[in-house]
Amino acid sequence: MQVGGNLFGCVWTSVRTLQAFAERGSSPELADSLDGRSFLPGYTGSAPIIICRRKSK
Amino acid sequence: MRDKKITRILCLFLALLTLVSTATVVVSANGSDGVTDKSIEDYVSELNTISYDDYVREYSAYFANPDTDFDPIRFDTTEGWVFEAEGDKTLALKDGEGNPVLDAEGEPIQLRSGAWWMEVEIDGNSWKLSVKEQLEDEDGEKYENVCITYNSIEEVEKAGVAEKSDLVFLAEYDGRTGLYTPGVGSITWTLNLEEKGVDAGLYSIELEYFPVVTLDGKTIAKSSSVEREFYINGKAPFAEARALTLAKIWSSKKPDGVSTITATYKVGKGETVDQVIAAAKAAGLEAVPGKDGKTVEVEQPGIVTSAINEFLAEYDLRFMITDADNNELRPTMVQTPEWATYTFHDSEGYYSTDFGFALQPENGTVSFSLDGVNESMAISAIILKPYTTHRSYTDYLNMVKDTVGLKEGTDTVKLESEYTFHTSTNVVYPIEDRTSPMTSPADTSRMMLNTIGTEKWATAGQWVEYRFEVDAAGMYEIYSRYRQSYLDGMYVCRSLQIFTEYEDEAAYKQAVGNTVGYYNGVPFAEAAELRFDYGTGWQVTSLTNGEDADNDGEVDTFSVYLEEGVTYTVRLEVTLGSMSKQVQKIESILNSLNEDYLSIIKLTGTTPDDYRDYKFTTLMPLTLWDMYDQAEALGEVSTFLKETAEVASTYSGTCDKLQNLLIKLVDDPDSIAKNLDNFKSYVGNLGTFLSDAKTQPLQLDYLTVQPASVSAPKAEGNFFQTFWHECMSFIQSFRRDYNSMGAMDDGESTQSVNVWLAYGRDQSQVIRNLSTNEFTPDSNIAVDLKLVTGSTLLPSILAGMGPDVYLGLADATVINYAIRGALQNVENMENFHEIVDACFTRAAMLQLEISDSEGVIHTYGLPETQTFQMMFVRLDILGELGIEIPKTWDDLHKAQSKLESNNMEIGITTSYKPFLYQAGGDLYADDGMRINLDSQEGLAAFEKMCNMFTQYSFPYKYDPANRFRTGEYPIILASYTDLYNKLKVFATEIEGLWTFVPIPGTIQADGSINNTADCTIAAVVMISGQDEEQMGASWKFMQWYTGAEAQSRYANEMVAIIGDSAKHPTANREALMNMPWTRDEYKEVSKQFENLAAIPNYPGSYYIDRHTNFAFLAAYNRNEDPTTELLSYINTINNEITRKREEFKLETLEIGQTLASKRMDQAMVAMDLLSEINNAKYGAAIEEALYAIANADKKILPLDEASATFAAFLEYDYVSDLNAVENDENLSNVMKTAKMAEIIEKVKTYAFFKNVTKQTAERKNGGYTIDSLNEQQLVYFVTECLRNAADAQATYTKK
After folding, report:
1. Closest Cα partner for B1042 from B772, B845, B835, B843?
2. Which of B520, B564, B1028, B1059 is the most buried (most CB within 10 A)?
3. What is the pTM of this model?
4. Torsion over CA of B197, B198, B204 and B207, rounded to 10 degrees?
């Protein structure tokens, strides 16, 4: 499943979406490594993922 | 010389003795219920049936020139039949009133399981069932004996012979009378062909059937298709006839399972409800005003037209169920049975034409039998049709041209793939696609189920149907927008079938005037093999088979003639199509290479010596020759793949690699030994390729029926469309809330249960779906389901942020959490005992029980899964070597010697528990206060297990699935669902060549076989710290989730989503039965399921496996004596158990002490004090007790009688109450335990009560001295001690 928009060869997505996927078991390690640099382990799409941070409330 | 003679005679005598003892074993083995009752011969005869290809060759004279010039001949199936079913339970014979039938001696007659069968037939006009058995007369001649006859189903049910759903009877279905036939037993019709003027010849066979879903208002259908085996005159004509699959009909409905799905339109400004309704009706849709007066409810149309397309596009309507955030949810799939016609054809999809049967009547008759495999159906007729092949497209086109001309149609109808009219399975359901702006429709802001298929629509025989009408007659193209990115470099096939809503061709002709637009199945041969090519993105294609028959340089596309106003149903069915030739080729290569591999390892073993000359050229020239042949065949497959895809793919690479290796091995046979591992792994890769090639995954977006002159739909958007779509997808990723997805905003749920589970996403989605659709509406309790990792539970509980309910906690962990107070005991919850009694085996429940420091037993959770070992056997190898399926360990050793001589082995595990429990032993003694492995049975079991590895050299470490697949280990004992699931996906090349049966057993004194296996469970637990109300809600969820219905649904959904490899090892008896096993599989699984050992989890249990493994390794590695080694660890284990029990303030024993001896010592001290107090009163009772204690092991005077004597002195004689419950035959074991617990609770309310288990504890933990007790307390103390001692003593001597 695509988790965001596929632009310029990368998948762009929000931390919120990634966290939801992490909680759903897509990648349990993900919750710890949401630092904007890591790729999404277990992601099977062809494009790398760039995580977009939203300012925390 | 004389000595030698004596020795010879002695040898002969010994040999005879061995033979006699073996015969005894076999005789006794046949009588047991827990072991398999099928022999290897039964399986081998099934395997040896010829294939359809061979059948066609054998009857080539029939197939060359079939008679096609006759009208179909119909045989009414409601008469002239006989039904037979084997009695697979022990039957206490009763008459139609339910009274026992007695034999000549006045004893009730009992028929052993498998030794009787029932026959049902119509006798004149009356229905009759006879129970029969086979007997031998004085001359040894066998004859059938009719034990009893019943004249109605009610009588049969009263007598307990069979349920109505397992019988045959006439019933009305949808206004037509049909013969109900169950998924078990065999029904045979004798058809009088002569009467109908049918000669010998080639025929297609059709069946009019109705898949039965409910019987007397109760749902009896499972989700699997109807499966039958077909026999002509008692013989399967060819192997494929033994696997007929008749599709069921599924429809999408609202969650209530009945209502048609509707779309809600909110009436905007400048519109009125009436206007919208009028517009909808004008388009041909049903519409009604919504409840609030501002909306319109539009019903999903059965038939799609261009007018409907326009209306839906204009008003932007979707026929889907939505959640609170407007995300689309999967509709509920329900079976909507109707009468259908099934033409016998290949269920695997290898052959695109129907089967032809060469019928040769004997005395003018022929008998057809259908053996039940799965699911029940009603049958109304068998029809013999001319065997015809489909006309070619050219012939079809000429026919259209000659009759009405090739005029182009003018209408365009779009069929959204997610709105299926019917499907053949509930696995094929709508799926979201967000990868393309051109997907119809696309919406980035919410989950939109806008496509259908993917890997779930991949198995031969699965179909989807759409219904439509065109408003102008003419030739139409059918375009499809699809994606096939699953099979790299290959194409997938679908067969297109078109049906018209008319009884037959004549009716159509009468209505329309000609028959050009009449279809009843595949319109022309090419449509049976439509091709969808590989590509990473979405593609659009017209109907094509990928060939260029007219050599115009472009692949051929096909169009069809459609009549105006006629309702057409198009069906796209998965078939192997033109890929079947390649698949068959790969299958044959794989089989040959597997055989070659087996021949090589028969010579070399699995780990050959690289430097030894095995003389392959001299010893196995045929094998080498065959390897060369297969290399050539692989080359052909590879070339085909490269030509098809125009590039090399992973699959062509697999073929190339294996081909090169084979050529190298044949050229230089000395390199075989060195490359054997490579050879095996490459063959394994080829197996994976084969299993992939057999699946035909396809994702479909829509179909359009349009004239050729209208330009084809676009597959992908242009740069700007795509850019905008992806930008929006990115932006929406900030808004989309995946956590609340699926939550229905009903506003009524007052309670919610927080449920955690540590499974995969598929599992969590299925549970979420089930709870949202079934649990919440019924209970009004919302479920907040969270998927977590396994390690999350401990920290979250410590932090006080744990869930209410946790799914899938392993048994030992349950006890670890429970004794530390993290879990809530559930034995006092509503309906606990009824649920446990009905749903779970004792083996499962016992693992969730533990007693507290007061000696009260608590249960922590309900079992969810239960796994155990079964024995997997390779039927082909055992059949070839003439080895019978082992039923006992002795049989296993016999099989081993034969296998060893062929360089094959048997895989078993290092578990001594089956041996222990089969011998009647127990792992623990004295309620877990000490280990029982130092008992005679314990030591014998452990030694037997060690000897398997040390003396018989069974392999210790191995990869079961791989070894089983290659045939190196044709017999393997392994966890039943683990290996089953693995083999289903991983070893498809040996599909049908293996089965699983209960594990070997130990012969008991009475000759029966005990094949108990140990089991482990995972449980659903309630976390402690909840208030009463919350506990009630949590319990309701637990009760629902572990219940038969939810477990069946869950198990079936998992199989549906992931495939046959997702068998869920449910712990619920009824759910296990409802799972889509085949009849044979279920029979074997249930045999083992009811023969499982109950091993409780006590504190310190982790120490046992660790130290028994040390003892095993010492025996295995250093040749130490297993018994001595094990004995050396007994005290260590007992010390650890004591240490742990002390930690949890549980009663302990001294080393060397037993509970019986401890209690007897305690009783003696108390009795001393009692005699001092009042010897006149207690003297006689004390003497009786002392005598019983002195003779405790001889049981001259049972301890419990002495206990009862003392109980009589008490204010409340609880022992007699306990005995009354114990001896009550009307109570089940669970209910007995519950009632006894009630009595014990009552005892605690009396002043004489003093907790015996606490006596030796430290004072701060409730310990006390015996001399501190008053008279009544002392009497109670003695009573309880003697009662405990009696119970403990009984366990030491039980067998």
Report:
1. B835
2. B1059
3. 0.78
4. 60
